[in-house]
Design goal:
alpha+beta; 3 domains; six-stranded mixed sheet; three-stranded antiparallel sheet; 13 helices; 14 strands; globular
């Protein structure tokens, strides 16, 4: 259904009934004497309910199945949420530093606890067993001891009425915007801001981590929250779930770098990643009233946090001492070179505004360093002016391509859905398809090079 781009269970059930060959391909086949039986529309909805409810439990009048909470009308009061989101958007982004640092402490305290036994856990296990591990066996994730992950979120408007249905009779008296609770058909949707379209919407937001390797964009994890969720917090919670999933499946994989856009630029994100030995690659988000301050042995820094020499020139990035969390810079007119197979340092005093070398006795000096753990946001372990930072940041476009695959190619953005669970199931189905498409692409390369190569590969197991 997902592969063929069907948006509706009703249309899909009708298509299966009218096309017996398609129903056989989909797995709904009887024996040769019986007519092929296909499921009704309600079967698909019931199947997702079974996934939501988890393990079977005997009926009990005191137990309500989780799927029941997502159905029907829900009495809620979300009046004024749009105005609240507007105030949060206009406020200083620095407020998220304290929020993310609290979340970091909470996640670190619960790091050894297992994942909740919910729908997301079932889908995580399916994705890792059916897609991620097979991709790793095909060597399509790169070196699993130092994975590079890219993360980003995207908006998913709900099919429910954002205005709800009144629970009072105020409209009879001509009052159409009262503060009473209203009924909503989507249990978890609320108001959020879509930064891509620059508008407010009623619904959900999903977040995913992607591995971009050898031209393929392979999802590693997907989660969904109400529209009010932010990249600041979703990225940390999802990365925690991904690490626990890998650990529970016995996969000793390590994450080397995590690449985020400026929407993740909060102090808690840097500290959370660095606590796990992960190098954060996050674009700087300009903020009001903040300016990089000198750190370590640097006396002066520019607006990007890079040390400035006594002559006023931006100093040259020399390296990073990981054990001491120090970013080292040296004189900008002293640069390394190779000559006759030897590593040498050349000095160019004419390029200096003072036309003289500050430190003539050393080949690199003067040398200063900046402590990245003092303020990892302004002084990250991987400096933003380094070539490797730009090389890794270029990989982040894989998130946009994956979002386009989910929302445009497979019509997820056009699906009228009033449940985050239905959205989440479809998100994971498309994620599995993205892996399968990458496998097919690699197999086709083999066939083009050698028509018998694929047959040999299958026989070899």
């Amino acid at each position: 259904m997902t592969l063929l781009g069907f948006k509706s269970f009703t249309l899909w059930a009708k298509e299966l009934r009218s096309r017996p060959r398609l129903s056989v391909i989909a797995g709904f086949a009887g024996n040769s004497k019986e007519k092929v039986k296909t499921p009704s529309v309600g079967c698909f909805y019931d199947f997702i309910d079974r996934l939501i409810d988890g393990k079977y439990q005997k009926p009990c009048q005191h137990y309500v199945k989780p799927s029941k909470f997502k159905k029907g009308k829900h009495l809620r009061n979300i009046n004024g949420e749009k105005e609240t989101r507007q105030k949060q958007k206009e406020s200083d982004v620095a407020q998220y530093d304290s929020l993310t640092r609290k979340l970091k402490d909470e996640l670190n305290d619960n790091k050894d606890k297992p994942r909740p036994d919910d729908l997301l856990k079932i889908l995580e296990d399916i994705l890792i067993s059916c897609a991620i591990i097979p991709s790793a066996k095909r060597d399509m994730l790169g070196d699993t001891s130092k994975l590079n992950l890219c993360g980003d979120g995207s908006a998913l408007p709900s099919g429910a009425n954002p205005n709800g249905k009144p629970s009072c009779d105020c409209y009879k008296n001509g009052i159409y915007r009262c503060n009473h609770d209203r009924y909503y058909s989507d249990a978890t949707a609320n108001w959020g801001y879509d930064s891509y379209r620059e508008c407010y919407y009623f619904g959900h937001t999903y977040y995913q981590h992607i591995v971009n390797y050898n031209g393929h964009d392979l999802p590693m994890h997907v989660s969904i929250e109400p529209a009010s969720g932010t990249d600041f917090t979703q990225s940390m919670k999802e990365l925690d779930r991904l690490n626990k999933t890998l650990k529970e499946h016995g996969l000793d994989w390590k994450i080397s770098h995590v690449i985020y856009d400026a929407g993740h630029d909060s102090l808690g994100n840097y500290e959370y990643l660095m606590d796990d030995g992960i190098t954060p690659v996050i674009a700087l988000n300009p903020r009001k009233g903040t300016h990089p301050s000198p750190s370590g042995s640097a006396q002066r820094v520019n607006e990007d946090g890079v040390p400035v020499c006594p002559a006023g020139m931006t100093m040259r990035l020399c390296g990073y001492v990981k054990k001491k969390h120090r970013i080292v810079y040296n004189c900008p007119v002293k640069r390394p070179t190779h000559r006759d197979g030897q590593h040498l340092w050349n000095a160019f005093p004419d390029e200096c505004p003072h036309k003289v070398l500050c430190d003539t006795e050393t080949k690199m000096g003067p040398i200063v360093y900046v402590k990245s753990n003092d303020d990892p946001r302004l002084h990250p372990p991987l400096p933003r002016n380094s070539s490797k930072f730009h090389e890794l940041m270029d990989k982040r476009s894989c998130c946009e391509r994956s979002n386009s695959t989910k929302k445009v190619t497979y019509h997820l953005g056009e699906r009228v859905c009033r449940s985050d669970a239905h959205y989440l199931v479809r998100l994971y189905l498309v994620s599995i398809i993205e892996h399968a498409r990458a496998w097919l692409s690699e197999d086709m390369k083999l066939v083009n090079d050698d028509p018998l190569a694929l047959i040999k590969k299958v026989k070899a197991g």
